[in-house]
Specification:
Rossmann fold, 4-stranded parallel beta sheet, mainly alpha, 50% helix, 30 helices, 10 strands, 4 domains
Length: 765
């Protein structure tokens, strides 16, 4: 009787579980298919497959969390491995002695099952403990709750998944214990009841031997049924919740990692992706030929590519991106996690209407009752009320849709489709510094920066909606070729007073091919006083090392980085095309730059427009010159105190381009300098706050990012902050001044030059 009841329950649970799981999977597929094409995301298959295996098995994104890395890996591997024990469970509901043919009683398989059952249990207990320890606690002030990376995550979903895993693994172990005792009482199976077949559970099964075969058989039946019903309940719940990324990611992450931007495994950082129109990169020269209904950037959810929509569905809500985000950690409304979840929820709600409306118009009608973004007061109230689904940038998306009348495919087929401001608040969109910390930390390869940039492009190019400060910057770039709006003839003023001549291509040398390097000075290096000191230092060091170089002078114009990262792709392409043409005319092949943003643009983005050059950052070149003995730093005079410095990694040099060692090697080569690292350094370094066009915008919410980072530097006890980007020099200098910190901000080249000058008694500068 017990077996019959258990069998009926198991069959019903399985039918419901499989049917609803298939329904949920189908819903996700249909939702992702709403997106636009994503060319090149499925090939080359071989390289992508190798990267997938390496990333999944290596768990590389967990480098900074070794315990979590090990626990998650064990849970991940135990999921497919122990699936076969679920298959065994169906047989055990009917026959307690059932085992898989061939494999069931094979000792290596039994060892593997027991080992991963115990390790998987330990792993899920550790992961649950981490979540419980770091969860935001009700009653805490909002700033305290925001410090948790799980703030804003849907707690019940995570706890449900963890509970299911724990129960299933406990059932696997319980069955092994019961099987040992049952086999010991069966003459035909007694030879299996040994530590050889039960290496990690025999000690628990031994006390149960002799309990009674009928009771043991019933226990095996019940535990098998429980294991199956719990497993099917998981499938029922996630089938009903296609947006439950914490569960679905174990399937979707495989596809998302395979379809990542870089087939060889690099992060989706460095070059911004071209602006696609009709699946092809935008050609400014053919702008007049675009269809009248063409859109630039992403203004509606269906304008994301299918990979973008897959990104949103894959989010695990782990909050690692939020934990590292400089905007979120300084009180801004931007959280990369909540940004992703808002788009996920909106896509999930809108996709059925988009599919239904596609045959008629390709886009659903916009509701007159479209909700507005949540106000700061509403945000705080929602957070303090402990609403887990809280979205600081969009309010409760699904709730807003319900209020607007979009209750389901059978309801009103009208949803708010303008992503900004209906889903993403403008303050969220423009708070991003594009530092890439979120992308670097994401374990499932979500491309947050690309999505933010696509939204910015639409706001700038289609809606003409952007911060007022950017309007002035755009005008200055267009009219003067630099964001300061200064006359191009002043680009060489930095060289006045140097004890040597700085040759200009076209005036002093005919071609850049006549010198070792074309020195790309950059706008900051030419016009900003603090950056000019770096430019002069690099020029003097190159002259001392007898490295020939020349500059473009007033022929140089902005690379376009501030325009592109602010969403003005057309202005970027105009500036970039001008520079590519100039560089081709002068025969430039080898370029040295002092600005991390210029470095990234020239080396990684200009190839998109046909400009291919060998680009080195000044720290890379100077490091090589020191190692070759062409620059010799000299120790301070006797009695002169040594100096403690800390190094700040520029995001566009470090995270975006993986240049971490050369600046530190240079500092280590300077006698009299002692390097101390900030808690957040290298891959986890905090942004200065200047990227993504933010150097031109005021911070009016929360703490200034530059002040927070300068405070971290001062807390190390260093008297100087060394960096390698003019944006960082400017932002950190201003941050230190605002804090009242007695710390000097210098470029690495300035510190090196001071040491090299100690060996030359001749006055300079």
């Amino acid at each position: 009787m017990l077996q019959t009841i258990s069998l009926v329950v198991v069959v019903l649970a399985t039918v419901a579980g499989v049917a609803l799981f298939a329904r949920g999977a189908s819903s996700i597929v249909r939702q992702v298919r709403v997106g636009r094409p994503a060319p090149g995301r499925l090939s080359p298959a071989g390289r992508r497959a190798r990267t997938l295996v390496r990333e999944v098995l290596g768990h590389g994104h967990f480098r900074q969390r070794p315990a979590v890395r090990a626990a998650h890996w064990l849970v991940m591997v135990s999921f497919p491995l122990l699936f076969l024990t679920l298959v065994t469970g169906y047989g055990q509901v009917v026959d307690p002695a059932f085992a898989l043919p061939l494999l069931g009683h094979l000792p290596p398989w039994e060892w593997l099952v027991e080992a991963f059952a115990w390790l998987g249990l330990a792993g899920i207990v550790l992961l649950t403990g981490v979540r419980l320890r770091r969860r935001p606690r009700a009653g805490e002030p909002l700033p305290e709750r925001r410090r948790s990376r799980f703030f804003g995550s849907t707690r019940w979903q995570a706890y449900f998944v963890e509970a299911v895993i724990a129960v299933v693994v406990v059932c696997v172990l319980a069955l092994r214990v019961l099987e040992y005792a049952y086999y010991a009482g069966e003459p035909d199976l007694a030879q299996l009841a040994t530590p050889l077949h039960f290496p990690l559970t025999a000690w628990l099964g031994e006390p149960l031997v002799g309990t009674g075969q009928a009771a043991l058989a019933d226990a095996i039946t019940v535990v098998s049924a429980v294991k199956i019903v719990v497993s099917m309940s998981w499938m029922v719940v996630i089938g009903l919740q296609p947006s439950m990324g914490v569960a679905w990611h174990r399937f979707l992450a495989v596809v998302n990692v395979y379809a990542r931007r870089e087939p060889d495994g690099g992060p989706a950082l460095g070059p911004a992706q071209p602006l696609l129109v009709g699946g092809a990169p935008l050609d400014v020269a053919a702008l007049d030929d675009l269809p009248e209904d063409a859109t630039l950037g992403v203004g509606h959810v269906e304008e994301f590519t299918w990979k973008g929509l897959l990104d949103f569905s894959t989010c695990t809500e782990c909050g690692r991106c939020q934990d590292q985000c400089p905007a979120w950690n300084t009180g801004k409304p931007l959280s990369p996690k909540l940004f992703t979840l808002a788009l996920r929820d909106h896509a999930s709600a809108a996709a059925p209407f988009l599919r239904a409306a596609a045959p008629a118009s390709g886009r659903p009608a916009t509701s007159d009752a479209a909700p507005t973004a949540a106000s700061p007061e509403e945000i705080g109230a929602a957070a303090l009320a402990g609403r887990d689904g809280f979205r600081p940038h969009s309010g409760d998306v699904l709730g807003a849709l319900s209020e607007a009348g979009a209750t389901g495919p059978g309801g009103v087929s009208a949803v708010p489709s303008d992503l900004v401001p209906d889903v993403i608040d403008p303050d969220v969109l423009w708070a991003c510094t594009t530092c890439g910390a979120c992308v670097h930390q994401c374990p499932v390869d979500i491309e947050h920066v690309d999505h933010i940039l696509d939204l910015r492009r639409h706001e700038v190019l289609m809606a003409s909606a952007f911060p007022a400060e950017l309007g002035g910057m755009f005008r200055k770039l267009e009219s003067k070729g630099n964001p300061w709006g200064l006359a191009p003839r002043k680009r060489l003023e930095w060289a006045k007073g140097l004890p040597f001549d700085v040759p200009v291509v076209g005036a002093d040398v005919e071609s850049a091919a006549e010198v070792d390097y074309l020195f790309w000075v950059g706008c900051a290096g030419a016009f900003e006083d603090r950056a000019r000191r770096t430019t002069r230092a690099v020029a003097e060091l190159l002259h001392t090392a007898e490295v020939s170089f020349a500059v473009l002078g007033d022929s140089e114009t902005c690379t376009g980085d501030p325009a592109r990262r602010s969403g003005n792709e057309l202005l970027f392409q105009m500036l970039a095309a001008q520079n590519v043409e100039t560089l081709a005319e002068v025969g430039a092949r080898r370029i040295v730059v002092t600005c991390a943003h210029c470095f990234n643009t020239l080396a990684r983005e200009y190839p998109q427009l046909g400009g291919h050059y060998e680009v080195v950052h000044h720290t890379q070149l100077l490091d090589r010159l020191v190692r070759e003995g062409r620059l010799t730093p000299v120790a301070p005079a006797a009695g002169e105190a040594s100096r403690t410095v800390t190094y700040h990694d520029p995001c566009y040099l470090g995270r975006h381009n993986q240049v971490y060692a050369p600046p530190r090697e240079l500092l280590g080569a300077v006698p009299g300098l002692s390097l101390t690292e900030m808690p957040r350094s290298g891959e986890t370094a905090m942004c200065c706050g200047g990227g993504g066009g933010r150097v031109w915008m005021e911070e009016t919410v929360g703490t200034r990012i530059s002040s927070a980072r300068a405070g971290e530097a001062a807390a190390t006890g260093a008297t100087a902050v060394a960096t390698a980007c003019p944006f960082c020099t400017t932002m950190l200098s201003d941050g230190a001044a605002a804090n009242g910190d007695d710390v000097e901000v210098l470029d690495v080249a300035q510190l090196l030059l001071a040491a090299v000058r100690r060996g030359d008694p001749a006055p300079a500068d």
